[in-house]
Inverse folding.
């Protein structure tokens, strides 16, 4: 009688874990879609800003998130198949994939944290140089477009202030046609509006574009980190449930083999 009750209890536990893993796998799949969406959003919507960063770490973190998100969604389908079929080999593969994705996201998180620590220093060193040496030069159209969008989106002018443009190769050239700042510094852009740098005409922001871009990137890194941590916590929970479910199936196989004998 006690053996029957134990078998019944084991069956109940198997069914309970099975449905629990189904619920987890659904949220895990949604989390993977969210991770991929954040990575794609970073590269598509904010690609212009990536052109003026000296390091590719920010972009690499986004690519890793896209790869991890895609892997999560594929693994989610594998998880559904493994749970339905109750095959230990499939569950073991599912468990291994969860750990692999966790490690990938851990690498992305470390890269994002490292980049966050040296973000301010990189911007101070590189943004001023980009504005003064590369703006509006032949072959630098992508950088010119990125700087123009940066100044318009953040309503700023120059890396630290509008005075930074006084040392620009472009402003000192004949192509500037007497401009003291690019037209993208103007509150209302018109042809050659950059000839006048009065506060009523151009953006005068304390800290310049560096402060604005630094805050934007820091906020974005926090979003990437929060999504990654959330999915990573789900993965650890899922890995634990999968390992336990696999263990129960193993014990059931052992008991079935023993009863046959």
């Amino acid at each position: 009688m006690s053996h029957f009750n134990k078998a019944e209890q084991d069956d109940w536990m198997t069914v309970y874990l099975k449905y629990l893993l189904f619920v987890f796998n659904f949220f895990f799949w949604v989390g993977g879609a969210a991770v991929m969406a954040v990575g794609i959003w970073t590269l598509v919507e904010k690609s212009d800003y990536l052109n003026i960063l000296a390091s590719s770490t920010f972009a690499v973190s986004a690519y890793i998130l896209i790869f991890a998100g895609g892997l999560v969604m594929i693994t989610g389908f594998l998880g559904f198949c493994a749970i339905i079929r109750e095959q230990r080999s499939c569950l073991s593969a599912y468990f291994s994939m969860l750990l692999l994705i966790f490690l990938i996201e851990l690498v992305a998180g470390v890269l994002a944290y490292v980049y966050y620590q040296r973000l301010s220093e990189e911007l101070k060193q590189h943004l001023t140089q980009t504005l003064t040496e590369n703006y509006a030069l032949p072959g630098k159209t992508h950088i010119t477009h990125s700087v123009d969008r940066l100044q318009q989106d953040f309503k700023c002018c120059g890396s630290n202030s509008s005075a930074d443009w006084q040392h620009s190769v472009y402003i000192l050239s004949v192509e500037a046609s007497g401009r003291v700042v690019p037209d993208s510094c103007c509150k209302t852009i018109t042809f050659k509006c950059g000839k006048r740098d009065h506060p009523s005409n151009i953006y005068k922001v304390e800290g310049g574009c560096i402060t604005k871009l630094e805050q934007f990137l820091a906020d974005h890194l926090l979003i990437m980190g929060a999504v990654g941590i959330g999915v990573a916590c789900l993965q650890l929970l899922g890995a634990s449930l999968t390992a336990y479910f696999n263990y129960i199936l193993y014990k059931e196989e052992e008991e079935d083999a023993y009863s046959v004998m």
Q: What stands out?
A: The mean pLDDT is 80. The CA atoms of residues 154 and 212 lie 6 Å apart.
